[in-house]
Design goal:
The protein is α/β, with parallel strands linked by helices and 620 residues long. The chain is built from 12 helices and 31 strands. The longest helix is centred in the C-terminal third of the chain and has 19 residues, at 581-599.
Length: 620
């Protein structure tokens, strides 16, 4: 049975052993008394003339009793406890999921290999739980094998931005309860962690240069890309960069020098016929921002059909200036209609549309009353106070219409959502949206207000997001993706496929996502090209890059160890006291009494000495 000595200082009591032996080397010196007749001298003890002195070692019962007392007292003082066979020490480790931790992955493994085993303390087993600070990630490891846990961390790739670990710390604490040990591991020191979490920082300052973003410009038929480089260090840095094209060829390397904590721009053009390329920078410790995958942006085009009277030509012209919008002559092939509506007609046109009232009467007085905008994504941050509207006939609105703007009791702008029959080959009803201007825009100053243009842009952009069509975008790692899907009976899931440098699909690079989870779709966590498809239909083509400047700056990384040793309460939980301590105390007491009995003076000898003084002082 394993035994734990909780008070090692009690071993100082063993110093009593040499003290007892030393005492038993001290003997009384005998007194010489001349007498005439030896047979008259009674048997007496040896008396000391000048006190005790070193003589010879005397083996006696008191000696062994006293040594036994010293040993038993030492055993009681070291407070021995027996390890429980079923005791388990639970340790939860929450790892910082931020991308900067990827630089210190080797240090992380070495630190955990050193720090975790001692936390077992006196327990018979050590159970580990390893979480990430990103709350949406699964548990990395649960078990009692440290080496297996470390091998699991070899495949771990932290790549998120800065995340508050409070949620993961709460989950980890609930897993190990109050008696367990909770450790948060990051690359920068942290203070005041919740849930009694201890902290281990493993970082150190590093120099880094990387991409922070990209832009595009049209130069005739060619597209020019511009990439922004940043130096995250306090010294000048020089890097080489080159381009890898989609056919696998590469450009000659070029050099760029950045001053301390500065930024610069590099640029080039897409080759003719090429849709994507990679800009690669000389690798450093932080590799996530050393590569910039780019695709030529191709947003979805929104096709609109005009049904406006001549007085709305100016507004139609301004609407046609919006980007990625195209006029169509076929209403059946259009995604949106701009309609001027006679308020005397009861029926409104169906389908996605922007409806503007067409007042036939002469201009009237301006409406009075306060202008109030309802809380709605289309109206957030828009100032409608400069709007001036003349009195006119109103359209008949339904109870289900959402009024967006009021002036007094008069609804000025409303949003109507209608349900259309399902298209052949698809399931579920189709929805259309109508933005209704319940006044004549030409009899107001709405056509000159930026608020009107912003509202029209937001509405058309919302329809573009809902349109199922292929598009090409440049995204950031982990960015939420808005992908419009079909309610098809044949394809009930999406596929996200990642591609390598040579354009080939990566091993395990395809992931299936149910349509019900499409709203939670995110870009991959590592830079590269990827596609999103629904069956054989391409929905999104993208090159994602890392652009979190906070994680790329490694100058504030530090090391710090705040892991406390195993507490006394943990020792009590994993061990039990020595149940025989009462027996050892009784044995010490009896040993003390027996030792005293054998060492006390004999009264019979004293009486004999006092009764025969003449025999002792006889003739000399």
């Amino acid at each position: 049975m394993n035994i734990v000595l909780t008070n090692p200082a009690g071993f100082f009591a063993l110093l009593g052993i040499p003290a007892v032996i030393l005492i038993h080397f001290l003997q009384r010196q005998a007194k010489v008394i001349p007498i005439s007749t030896l047979f008259l001298l009674a048997h007496t003890q040896r008396e000391s003339v000048s006190g005790r002195r070193f003589d010879r070692f005397t083996n006696s019962i008191p000696l062994w009793l006293q040594l036994l007392m010293v040993i038993l007292l030492t055993w009681l003082l070291v407070l021995p406890r027996h390890v429980r066979s079923s005791s388990t020490q639970q340790v939860a480790v929450v790892l910082d999921s931020s991308a900067s931790m990827s630089v210190f992955k080797e240090q992380l493994l070495d630190k955990l290999r050193t720090k975790l085993p001692p936390l077992q303390g006196n327990a018979s087993r050590l159970r580990l739980y390893i979480f990430e600070s990103a709350g949406d990630r699964p548990v990395l490891y649960t078990g009692e094998d440290l080496e297996k846990a470390l091998s699991t961390l070899q495949k771990w790739t932290p790549s998120t931005g800065s995340i508050d670990p409070a949620g993961s710390l709460r989950l980890a604490r609930s897993q190990v309860s109050r008696e367990g040990i909770l450790i948060y591991v990051s690359d920068t020191p942290a203070t005041n962690l919740p849930f009694d979490a201890q902290h281990l920082a493993i970082g150190e300052p590093r120099e880094n240069v990387g991409f922070t973003g990209a832009g595009f410009e049209n130069e005739g038929s060619a597209v020019r890309w511009k990439a922004l480089l940043r130096n995250y260090s306090d010294s000048n840095q020089t890097r080489n960069w080159h381009i890898i094209f989609d056919d696998g060829s590469r450009s000659p390397s070029k050099s760029v020098t950045l001053k301390r904590n500065s930024m610069t721009t590099i640029s080039s053009v897409f080759p003719e016929g090429s849709r994507r390329l990679r800009v690669v920078l000389t690798s450093d410790d932080f590799t996530l921002d050393d590569e910039l995958p780019l695709v030529i942006p191709r947003p979805k085009t929104l096709r609109y059909f005009l049904q406006l009277t001549g007085k709305y030509d100016q507004i139609a012209e301004k609407f046609g200036r919006f980007r990625n919008i195209e006029e169509s002559n076929d209403p059946a092939q259009s995604d949106l209609s701009l309609v001027s509506h006679d308020p005397l007609l009861a029926e409104l046109p169906r389908g996605n549309s922007i409806i503007m009232l067409d007042e036939k009467n002469q201009a009237r007085k301006y409406l009075r009353g306060g202008i109030v905008a309802e809380r709605h994504p289309l109206m957030d941050g828009i100032n409608w106070q400069p709007l001036l509207v003349r009195e006119s006939i109103q359209m008949q609105l339904d109870e289900t219409d959402k009024v967006l703007l009021w002036q007094g009791n008069r609804p000025l702008i409303a949003l109507r959502t209608s349900v259309l029959p399902a298209v052949s080959g698809e399931t579920g009803a189709q929805r259309s949206q109508q933005l209704i201007f319940n006044f004549d825009l030409t009899l107001s100053n709405a056509g000159q207000l930026d608020s009107t243009a912003l509202l029209l842009h937001r509405f058309s952009q919302g329809l573009r997001d809902l349109k199922v069509a292929p598009e090409a975008l440049n995204t950031e790692t982990g960015q939420p993706l808005k992908v419009a899907t079909r309610n098809s009976t044949e394809t009930t899931s999406l596929s996200l496929t990642r591609f390598g440098t040579n354009g080939q699909t990566l091993e395990d690079g395809t992931r299936m996502i149910p349509l019900s989870q499409a709203r939670f779709l995110q870009a991959p966590e590592t830079p590269g090209f990827f596609e999103v498809r629904q069956g054989d239909e391409l929905l999104l083509e993208s090159g994602c890059h890392f652009a979190d400047t906070r994680e790329a700056d490694l100058r504030e990384c530090r090391s710090e160890d705040q892991i406390a040793p195993v507490s006394g309460k943990a020792v009590e939980r994993s061990t039990r006291e020595d149940h025989f301590w009462r027996l050892w105390a009784v044995i010490v007491l009896f040993s003390l009494l027996f030792s005293w009995h054998f060492t006390r003076d004999r009264p019979r000898d004293e009486k004999e000495h006092s009764a025969n003084p003449e025999a002792i002082t006889g003739n000399r």
